[in-house]
Amino acid sequence: xxTGTGIGMGVRALPASPNWYSSRCSDASSDGRLFGFAARHxxxxxxxxxxxxxxxxxLIGHTDRISGFAFCHCPGQSGLCASSSDDGSVKIWDSxxxxxxxxxxxxxxxxxxxxxxxxxxxxxxxxxxKGVIVCHWHNRNDxxxxxxxxxxxxxxxxxxxxxxLVAIGYKDGMVVIIDISRKREVVHRLRGHEDxxxxxxxxxxxGEERLPAWQDELQAPSEEGKVPNxxxxxxxxxxxxxxxxxxxxxQTLRIWSCTRGRSVMTLKLPPTKRRGGAxxxxxxxxxxxxxxxxxxxPSELVSSGFGGELxxxxxxxxxxxxxxxxxxxxxxxxxxxxFNLSSVKHQDRELLFSISMDRDVKCWDLSTLDCSWTMxxxxxxxxxxxxxPVDTGCLAIGVGDSMIRVWNTLSMNNIYDVxxxxxxxxxxxxxxxxxxxxEGSLAFGTDDGKVGIFDTLSSSAKNKPPQISxxxxxxxxxxxxxxxxxxxxxxxxxxxxxxxxxxxxxGEGIVFQHNPWKLNxxxxxxxxxxxxxxxxxxxxxARTEISWKPDGKLLALGNEDGSIEIFQAPNLKLLCxxxxxxxxxxAIRWHHEHGTQPELSYLIASGSIxxxxxxxxxxxxxxxxxxxxxxxxxxxxxxxxxTAKITSLSWSPHHEGRLVSACYDGxxxxxxxxxxxxxxxxRGHQGRLLSVQWSPVDSDCVxxxxxxxxxxxWHISKQEHTRPPQGKKSIELEKKRSIQPKVKxxxxxxxxxxxxxxxxxxxxxxxxxxxxxxxxxxxGVSDHEGEKEAQEAELVDEVSVTVSRDTSSSACDYSSxxxxxxxxxxxxxPVKKDPPKEKPAPDASVKKRKPRSILPFSTLMDHRSKEELxxxxxxLAACLKTKDNNEDVSPDxxxxxxxxxxxxxxxxxxxxxVEGKLHVxxxxxxxxxxxMLWKGDMKGVLQAAAERGExxxxxxxxxxxxxxxxxxxxxxxxxxxxxxQEQYVKAASHLLSIHKVYEAIELLKVNxxxxxxxxxAKARLRPEDPILKxxxxxxxxxxxxxGHYAMAAKCYLGASSPYDAVKVLSKKGxxxxxxxxxxxxxxxxxxxxxxxxxLRCAQDLLLSRNxxxxxxxxxxxxxxxxxxxxxxxxxxxxxxxSERNPCERKSPxxxxxxxxxxxxxxxxxxxVTELWQNVLGMDTTEQAxxxxxxxxxxxxxxxxxxxxxxxxxFHISHDLALAxxxxxxGLWDEAVKSILGAVTRSFDAGNFTLMQEICSIILPEGCDxxxxxxxxxxxxxxxxxxxxxxxxxYRLLYDLWWNPPKGSLGLQEAVLGPVSCPSEQxxxxxxxxxxxxxxxxxxxxxxxxxxxxxSSTEVPKSETQSDSRTGSVxxxxxxxxxxxxxxxxxxxxxxxxxxxxxxxxxQETLAEMIRQHxxxxxxxxxxxxxxxxxxxLEQSSETESDKPCSDSDxxxxxxxxxxxxxxxxxxxxxxxxxxxxxxxxxxxxVFPFPDVLECCLxxxxxxxxxxxxxxxxxxxxxxxxxxxxVYKKAARSFLT
Length: 1536
Known about the structure:
This protein is α+β, with helices and mostly antiparallel strands.
């Protein structure tokens, strides 16, 4: 844990940048000594007790980004602090020892906010992204969880006055105050903000009475709502109340009253002008509004502003403008948004600390509002350090956050005098080099290959962009060096050329020479000069490092293969090559010139991916005049001790032969080169070192930069270690590094979301930092876009310029313990990935496998012992000798098959056969086949492979060498083999190759590859070939079976049978399919089919109440003109019905009506006919007659109570359309029959209300007008008219009964009770009604009556309402209406209906007998008891439900069933009744009529309202024709 302490003494540092987008990740200790802020996964502590800040140390231990940090503000514990991290843990630290005291991980999700209670010394409260709040009392190791809201917590803060209150701010703008005591309740929910709450601050002084200026606002209730948002707790502290301030992304601050539970003041951020902001104003930054309520100042509040300004609000000040800006002079303000504010009283001053996206930490004096000091910080790896040779003490720092810092280390009044340059860089800065003589001229190179020059002195430098070379490298720039010009820049006069030019070396291995006077010109690749001067033809190595000797006479180039080449200026003649390192060269440095021993200036130190540093002395080489270049393989000195790659070297300018090295092992080492002795080792960094520079002014001082995002200035004399860490420790370090990042990488993604940071990437300076890195950034975020990379950089990739020029290691050995990672996030990154430096590495790691030998047996035999091999030689010689003498092979050659290689062809064939047999036994058929091919026995191989099913593409490809027949045979065999392996498509392709087209197509078809088969057939066969049609129809049949109708239709069209296509499309039966099918039929000329489908489609549209769509579908067909009339009438009828009683026809689908103007003056038929003529164009009588004929051809089945109501309405519309046409044509006799048809249809369907409505719409005045127009000689039409009058009177009768005069209320109630019958029964009754008048008619009507009774009570009908007047007028009027009902009391009708009832009863009894008979037979067939029981039950339940329905009915049936009635008797009864029926005149039977006896009962029910003579008549009829059964049925069904 104590890693931080080693840094302490005398180290001055530029630390890593504070994390972004956290509500509290920095805090000051209450004693005013320390200020700490979270930087990536560490906490950096500054000692702020003096006038200038000093680097105090770091708290190291978390493995992921830190999201919250707070000191303990309880007396006596000012040294304790706590941090929360994305790794899920909260750690408590002792800042004195820089070590962790305690750690706990209670959250399941990323922690987003943390606070140490100012009143309870061991309470830490933290909140996470899912809304869980954890309170942890570490002294007693106790914790409690709260879950007030399921939202993302953004900030939280404990009350300084009441230990149980915690205020929490959420991502969606809600603020909640909870009580964490036993009560565990939400005290208030404060609503008002519309976006993320960035910060909450309690007023430091309790009470809510001290701000008189606010009173006016309290009087006028604020817009937030008048009621407090929660109950008030009764205890005194809360009663007294306290104000709470909140800052939100919605650009407002609100002050909330805790007693009232609402906002008492809203402050809107003023749009302040940018002052000296070094940021492109076009960049729209994300706003962050943090607030801080300084101690002891209840009326003053500090907040951040839009661009980085800080505002001091005076809450008591009247008027709009309540704010003052902090920082009077130019440049004091932050240039980007501020994230956290914290203050502390120190001695007599009150200090305020702020951290910002501009990566500066500032300290302000609250009494003067001026900035006391600024501490810069770094947001990326420190890739490069360079001291200016002209402006002593001026250190340039190249950082991965896309910015260059120039630190004036000698400044007296400000030890952190740092200028920042960011214009046009937009990528990690990986290399820097100062011009040797021109002050302020700084060359830089970046990760994306850009080279440029800044003027750091210009007064407008802040905003002056650099010059950029027009020649870019393809990869990361590793090194820059100023040196004398080389060709082609030397030609001509001295005056025309610069005295020094800029050389850059980058990852692709090329060195360019840039002319600093003409950066926009083409740069030169110096390899060209090297080739020309040295006449080199071979490929030159990739360059990875460049260094000019200070006197400009020699150039050293380091290469990827580890060699170093020394060239002589100006023509770059190769003097020598140093072959010492065998890995990519990272650093080369020449010794300085100004020592007492001039020969030391020939020393050159170099470091590579290998950990050893070599120093060579080139004096002899330079003085040697030989023509050809030398090769040096022995070093002058060897400096061993580091355990990882060397990234940078620097000679001490104050000593001779003293060198400092920076290494990936995390340390810097000072060496005495001449003695090869390590002098001092610095271990203060928390990551891998990337750069090092010896201070030019202080011989005891060294500056190092690392991937921990910091620069350290340390003293050699104060270090306790002399040599690099060795052995285990260093290995573990490496391991740790390599592991860390990976882990991270996965996790990283999350934080992104969480942190407030998540959102705008745009913020970056250059507008591009991506969020990811933001967080990731180590420092909290990235900044100028480049940062991002930095982060990734972390990855260390090939970091620093010199740093990692190599790949291999880079990825793994990562040290930064936990850098967040997404590595390579953005554009630039890829470059990183493969630093060319060091290509070799990869191969080393992967060993190539040797291919298997094709002659393993003979090879093996030739690798036996020496004696045996000698023996072979003798045998072979003997054998060849006998051959020459034409003798047989000597017998002992049989065992030496392998010698066949050296004798004749027969022996070779034997050898091949043996080797082949072995290959087959070992399962290497392909090697066997190759041997046979060599031998020339291809045919045998093919046959053998075919038999074993082992043919391959390669064998098939070779088969033509055997001949055409063999090839065809092989392909067929291969196709069969492929089918066996279910690779049918491939098999078909092979068949095609031997022109077997039909077989190939058949193969695909049989295996259901229809699509492929069709493609093949269409491409290869004649269009009229019947195979094609057959394919289409077979595929269509399959598709149709699977329900893919549209696809099947396309197949039928392809097979040119449009009729089938239409049929299959219409199969699905939904509206769109029918419509498409109809259009398709029309296109194909199938007129009649199209008309049928269009009509079906229109009827479906009608069910969904879309009349507009239905008319569109119908209008394409002349033959459907009659139907268009029906649909038109149906629409008008539905509109009338829904207007008459709106609440009844509620439907889930909104109706789609035409916007027709209806003529409300005319009668219904008049209105409809007018529409037909005007809209549908029915102009002539012929058209009307034609339409009538069309409609008469259509017969609709009679309606029953099971017919769908919309269907019934449609059929009624059909009848009414015929009636309207008849009226239009003057055929009144026909009209009457059609109207009667409509009325009886609604009656038969069991919808009494509908019948009522239709009568009142069609015949508002009764039937008198109609009767006058009829031909009285036509008895049929007169009968129809009488029947119609009967139904009109029937409707009237019920109307009068259901709407009694107001006076007789008692009567009405008496009736009301019984009538609303249980709906199940009604439904049941309705379900049994049959279409013809029958004994159940009574039950049926009664059922309707029950149902409609309810509806008519809800929506009284308009006519009856108007009738319900008071007094005798009313009664007289009702009686005259009742007289109109006399038509219902027809004697002959009563007799006829009685006879029909008898017949029906007998038929029913017969049906029951048959049913019982069947049941008995079924029971006999069943064997087991159980079955019988089951079927009985079913049977009986069926019979019950099939029976007509009211209970009394069932009772009757049962009674009758009990009396034994024989079949002959029943037949006799039936005949008698039928004869009786035949005696009635036919004209009575033609048209239906309401049930006479039921009407009599209703009349009697009306009691006193009914004229006495009618009552008499009704009684007489009932006595004559009534029977107990009839009464029971009728009365029971409408009285229950």
